[in-house]
Protein 1
Amino acid sequence: MVHSGSDDDDVPAAMTMQGGTRVSAAARSVDLNCDVGEGFGRWSGGDDAALLKLVTSANVACGFHAGDPSIMRSTCALAAERGVVIGAQVGYRDLAGFGRRFIDMAPGELRDDIVYQIGALDGFARIAGTSVRYVKPHGALYNAIVDNTEQASAVVEAITRYDRGLAALGLPGSEFLRLAAAAGLRTVEEAFADRAYTGDGHLVSRHRAHAVIDDPVEVARRCVRMLTGGIVEAIDGSLVTMRPDSICVHGDTVGAVEIARGVRVALTAAGVTLRPFA
Amino acid sequence: MVHSGSDDDDVPAAMTMQGGTRVSAAARSVDLNCDVGEGFGRWSGGDDAALLKLVTSANVACGFHAGDPSIMRSTCALAAERGVVIGAQVGYRDLAGFGRRFIDMAPGELRDDIVYQIGALDGFARIAGTSVRYVKPHGALYNAIVDNTEQASAVVEAITRYDRGLAALGLPGSEFLRLAAAAGLRTVEEAFADRAYTGDGHLVSRHRAHAVIDDPVEVARRCVRMLTGGIVEAIDGSLVTMRPDSICVHGDTVGAVEIARGVRVALTAAGVTLRPFA
Amino acid sequence: MVHSGSDDDDVPAAMTMQGGTRVSAAARSVDLNCDVGEGFGRWSGGDDAALLKLVTSANVACGFHAGDPSIMRSTCALAAERGVVIGAQVGYRDLAGFGRRFIDMAPGELRDDIVYQIGALDGFARIAGTSVRYVKPHGALYNAIVDNTEQASAVVEAITRYDRGLAALGLPGSEFLRLAAAAGLRTVEEAFADRAYTGDGHLVSRHRAHAVIDDPVEVARRCVRMLTGGIVEAIDGSLVTMRPDSICVHGDTVGAVEIARGVRVALTAAGVTLRPFA
Amino acid sequence: MVHSGSDDDDVPAAMTMQGGTRVSAAARSVDLNCDVGEGFGRWSGGDDAALLKLVTSANVACGFHAGDPSIMRSTCALAAERGVVIGAQVGYRDLAGFGRRFIDMAPGELRDDIVYQIGALDGFARIAGTSVRYVKPHGALYNAIVDNTEQASAVVEAITRYDRGLAALGLPGSEFLRLAAAAGLRTVEEAFADRAYTGDGHLVSRHRAHAVIDDPVEVARRCVRMLTGGIVEAIDGSLVTMRPDSICVHGDTVGAVEIARGVRVALTAAGVTLRPFA
């Protein structure tokens, strides 16, 4: 759920776990976010041009784990042209590891690295006629700040110092979102379209079988159920409450575009409006 | 001279080359700029804390040739605290070469690298309660855009796209300042306190003897003569017209602080007001 | 031609420009080289696994323009397993520019950068049970040392200091090969399978039309003619003498594998033995 | 103690903890190691020229946490000239953090990063007429492999794959030295000249008071006691057995040279021969 100061639970009380319950189009909307701009120099990332036709929010890499200035410029330009909201996908300074390796940094250094990345991206958003609207940590940093309070606090401090108007996009229940909310930031909870969940609502580790769902139809079906029913079926068969403000589709997997398109089409058909949260 | 749109030559006609001619304090002011924040990680640059007590404009390194996010943050904070104006000291992406090696980049890539650096620094200026006010290219880039029109144009385009309110600080007569002025940017011409000039007003190459003047008294004397007389004695003994808007003192040479202090004291004593151009 | 001290022109006098002239298999052999290992971190380069089944020499990127330690290790292991000779594909320190931008480095710094890269790759060749046998400069460095004597000399000095037993692979007529030969190194001249030549035997600039030949059949036909006839048809229709010791096939273009396979098949069918020069 | 296959305990039985017990010069020798080459580009590290007159083994940075190719070349040349043995001071790829931040890398990637660094340095040792003789991990990696078995194993695997003749220099009791010995590598245990120890022989954390001893006389006195008495006084006043094969003096602290000189003079005066272990 989106929390913003005086909070507001916009989920109708009637939306209980009754499986097929369908809510009216007016009752529900959701954001669709995706990582983009994750190439570097001669190397490219996903099919950003196609993805930016489908999502409503773009997590643009800022040069530390991926993304170079020219990619950042063209990605922001394309996002702005299509009305896709730009967020800073910030990560550890680790190009060789694509930001997927935890770095035990001092919180102050991490905070400064985050400010640097947001500022750099904001320049490109500015010349594209818009501005950075939110921050979504990437990779190992995303995972670390689920429960690493020090690093989570560093990211929150970077955002609040840079611009209190930026939203924090992250995992429901994470230290990151808890501290962001406590600091007065708008928080946006996301669900993963193609990831399996455990019975208590956590992500199934990628190292386990069936952690990633690669059937586009099944992915779309799950997203519709989350948005219209407020639930997702866990890997153990149980039903878990899941009312995301944003759904994350992956940009770099095989069939990423197909999956994103499927989610978009299915949600729209189910009466869910796709629109950016910011 | 500072040019800004309908600008004009504000040097009184009476200020001819008569050596000892003294102008009144009211008639003349100048900016004093210096490179700062040029460390990286565990390595430090010059004595920034001392220099930021002496100069009026700080050219802060932005992470491509030197400077890391934590150094950028603390340098901006210190500059802001002391009322020193912050400029983006942008350079080639070349940490190993300290930005002192020409890189034959495509203009579009260079433009994007410059936007990235300005934006990143602007974030730290923002959290220090101020903003980047000007751009000064560094090292090999500074030298390249004296006559490399393509790269000069790329830097100017970066500035105009990012913020037309930023001034361009550079070498008088350079392609950079010519194109910046043509693009409607405010241009600021600088002289070097401790560098020898040729009879036609160019810098004597560092590879030649006596290219750098290291006697603080002589450096100060030359600065006073530029500001009160509008001239500097060239290496061949001739007198060259020199009416800088800003004087650059170096931050990383032996005795840098002493030289900067000498220049400041001597100029002030000569009735020249030291104040930022921006 | 391969030059090595007492030189040896192994091209029979009878091999004159008569188009269809066919030489016996015994009379001619050639090396086939290709750039490999040009990914970085999560980003991959060409289809190395397929290419290493086709070429006889592998130009392995060493981490400065592309290639990371894990890619270097696996690439060397695969090359060694298939009997493909390993060469150090050395470049400027420019990951963002993929080594395709000239850097005006001091010769001593360039020499040291080259030694570093050769040594690093040699470690992986060693653990794969072999060793680096030659050096082929990459990208902008390759082009620079065609006529930049200072940088060419720096590369040659790096090789001679590291190991006089290493061969130098480069462009016929380049300063690089001239200086390498003068220093007593074995030199290996290469032709490009898919590049057009001017009437005086130079490469047609990539910025011109028809600079790259992308029809696999035509590429193969040209290679056969070079090896069996000692000539290549220039872009202006004239015939140019071309007796390469090695033919370079590109690894990162669309259809790279198909082109390499075509060249291999056609040369073998024409009686040319494919074998490494080193 | 140095362990090497059929090794043996060369410490005379008579050397018990009797405080002032003095052993004859013939009975004891020790190595003195120091980090050198820890600059990067324009930034310099410690006073290597002075330190390389005092130590017997040089831990040369390999470019990942510090050190660039030109620094590596000149450092190896100077070490070789003075008969100082060269070791590879390998670290995490983290120039911004000077290798002082733990990175949670996959063991295979770490192993490859280590091989890369050893190989690169070995090239410079080779052109200096010698070769790398040992490996000493740096900073956060040094600390991690005290008890991180996976990463310790990765470092050991890198060494054994590269050259089984290289010694492993590290902390007594560490996983690193345990696994190195198990893999058949020669292990070399070091003590820190200027660091305080706990009663059970561990280093006192740098975050605690009195963790570093900065009085050169006291540092020298402790080293003499270790080498002649086999003990060191712990921070709690107890006596701890300490029979190092090598003593590490720091190169980048204030007074580093003075401390190294003091240790050298005092040990020599006490009849301890300073000589490299490798």
Protein 2
Amino acid sequence: MENQYTPPKIWTHNDDNGGAWASVNRPISGATHEKTLPIGKHALQLYSMGTPNGQKITIMLEELLALGKNAEYDAHMINIGNGDQFSSGFVALNPNSKIPALVDHASETAEPIFESASILVYLAEKFDALLPKDGAKRIHVFNWLFWLHGSAPYLGGGFGHFYAYAPEKFEYAINRFTMETKRQLDVLDKQLANHEFVAGNELSIADIAIWPWYGNLALGNLYDAKDFLQVHEYSHVQCWAKAMLARTAVQRGSIVNRSWGEPWEQLENRHSAEDIDKVLALKPV
Amino acid sequence: MENQYTPPKIWTHNDDNGGAWASVNRPISGATHEKTLPIGKHALQLYSMGTPNGQKITIMLEELLALGKNAEYDAHMINIGNGDQFSSGFVALNPNSKIPALVDHASETAEPIFESASILVYLAEKFDALLPKDGAKRIHVFNWLFWLHGSAPYLGGGFGHFYAYAPEKFEYAINRFTMETKRQLDVLDKQLANHEFVAGNELSIADIAIWPWYGNLALGNLYDAKDFLQVHEYSHVQCWAKAMLARTAVQRGSIVNRSWGEPWEQLENRHSAEDIDKVLALKPV
């Protein structure tokens, strides 16, 4: 057996470990530098980055705007590759140093809201949309919302890390998380075989939570893993993922707080609808 | 470099992979065998196992009973080591084949509720307890409830798997997930430095979700990792974990659907308060 590692009695931190994200992973929490966050003119101030967890919120806000709700917002880039999530300003909003975080300055105490799904629940309740108030429909939405929140770490922190970011290709870990990712895609595929949307026949915050992860994965937009995972096999996921992508709000929300991809996929900060319009207008027809 | 693995273009399943849980991990979902589930006499029927995710629900139910709510329940063992989660009956409740799942036969459609946190939200709303209805307190509970749901996979599926269950000790993976687990403990420790309970000064479903994972970990009851993680360093987590353990409901809920540990920690199925009383009575004084 090649692998001769025996864990020590007490673990100690070694800076060499971590792969592509080594510089941003630490065994302690808290701020690394003093910096206040910008505040724009709208009540809703979002501090985020256009990764799947960030896209959830901007898609939600754009869906709310499309429904005629007064959900105007400023979205400020928190570049996690640069360690912006460890500024004193951001840590004051989210002690866990993960994007996204939201502050609603129209609320009584402007309490920081963190964890993407907590923000989705807050916005759904504030605007009375995309989360049924009771009964079976509410159960379905929460079932699938929490399914995503508990499953995506295996996709992002497991499969994505070991397949795309780790400094070496570790066969055991890749197999472990690939198997789980394919199982998750299969769970979702079976659910979508009988339902137009994940939690039933209406769009909900469950779709908005799940699409940025499993929709983008199915469409080949995550980890360059389309062939490896044979994502085309999940035909109902494919169909739903494309239908979601056809939504104006999904297209608009997907490009916010991004500084990578094509020019028409990159809007660093969003302060008005026109900011998005200008970037999307760059797309060749 | 010893590690010469190159992933194939298309991943294929190999039964040899998986470690201690290899037999229950598959790349597809769905039932493996036909079997109906038992149904007891109470409205609330829980299908679960006393792992941390299962303990959340039985602790919640015992807390509700302690509050005088009519939360009587039957708790049926779903032994995940034996593949009970792949029975047709269980898959019909939770297509994701994870414990716990709950059915409320007093509700209009007896809709299956799955994902531990979805069950916590359902029970909190049904019995109007442990989840504030609005304002800053509600935000805090949802922030930390989702924090747990997104963090625990790194503890259980990451650290626990690679430290305790994987067929070999993989140094990189152990380091990665140990670092994240210690960071999470530190996040929690800082929050508990200023709050009696995780989401503020009142017990909530956030504590009930977090204690079975990080409380048990801090008390040395998970993965035999007390020294490795130096859990004693997280003094506020220690204090909270012990205060939670001192609660009657936590002691009662922790032993349900368990078939391991000391004799007074094992109650395979629970149909009445007396079932728990009898097992706890075995504890030496």
Protein 3
Amino acid sequence: MPEKKKKLYEGKAKIVYETDDPDKLILHFKDSATAFDGVKKAQLEGKGSLNNTISSIIFEVLHKKGIKTHYIKKLSDNEMLVWRAERFLVEVVVRNLAAGSIVKRLGFKEGEKFEKPLVEFFYKNDQLHDPLVCEAHIDLMKLAPIEALPTMRETALKVNSILSEFFSQNGIILVDFKLEFGRLPDGSIGIVDEISPDSMRLWDAETGEKLDKDRFRFDLGDLLEGYRKVLERISQ
Amino acid sequence: MPEKKKKLYEGKAKIVYETDDPDKLILHFKDSATAFDGVKKAQLEGKGSLNNTISSIIFEVLHKKGIKTHYIKKLSDNEMLVWRAERFLVEVVVRNLAAGSIVKRLGFKEGEKFEKPLVEFFYKNDQLHDPLVCEAHIDLMKLAPIEALPTMRETALKVNSILSEFFSQNGIILVDFKLEFGRLPDGSIGIVDEISPDSMRLWDAETGEKLDKDRFRFDLGDLLEGYRKVLERISQ
């Protein structure tokens, strides 16, 4: 069992610790929910464990399909062992149906299905509210190595295919999701951070019920009940 | 002299008329100034003539350098004869220095020089306040033919080189500008609309004085005095 050493960084939903291996880190998933760049907050016992477990299952699904990620293994209820990565300052969002910011931004109707999945990049910057960026901005502002963008875009679309099918088999529609990328110790580009109902929109395929963080954002019902339903379905 | 026939369209700054030739239109430049999607308005006698004259000079400069535009000729103080075009729903912005929306949006300092010119695309939609779009959005929403984008980007950068030098010779810094594109009657892609101090940021190279529509937007001084200075300098 790797040992937690120095705390490297504490974010809104996770704490990152160094270990005795300089290439490996421990992610501790906190029991906190935040939305709107941290303006809305709550403490929810069990959330960290749910996100860690769901993320671990998803990383294992992706691993089996040959997708490179920072995931090594789940260590405990709230802890995940991962490869250390130089993280890029870009969030990659893939959208299958219109929901969230794009509805107001570009005039789509909530739930409208896109002709093909839409890949968007955002500058990871809370103060600026994670603004949309295109390749030219990423290049100019050096938010990520420009030669990594095709890999990031292709990987995001592959992940979309894999996870859309995975969730669909479990009666859930993958509406959209956010990925982060970085350079792993072996020099390759891989997915970092978490992939959980905090970073995906998941709707029940039958009822349309929202099972993700929108429950918390818009007070649509108990957050953890949604997350528990997701875990239950994908654990079968 | 081509004759004005049916009024086709009236915008914030121009009226478009058909002529007896179905491939040719007359643009009438109005004496009105608007900003912030039409929220701020004023009637300014002489503005239409200034913009028509400045635009005509610029289109002629571009024409000599082999840039395809809808411009045919200046007909009178307020009128320009142009080719009819199927206009794309995209505005192309080229930025040399940070100013305007990009300062708040991405955290640049006003006046900061970019390492290389930045080309951005915006969805031409007042109701949505002309949001930033990337290639993927333009493709998905069919805002312009996707195969036209490389031409639009290259043309915008060529125009930037030509006009940066042209203004620089006349003691003016070309900070940024907006172009619109469309398909001309011969099937080629060309620049449409106007290229005037309404659609460019122009700063005096010595004093930094703003000579463009920002004078009106932010009450920095008499708008037409700025436009007259621009015309005076580029007429020499």
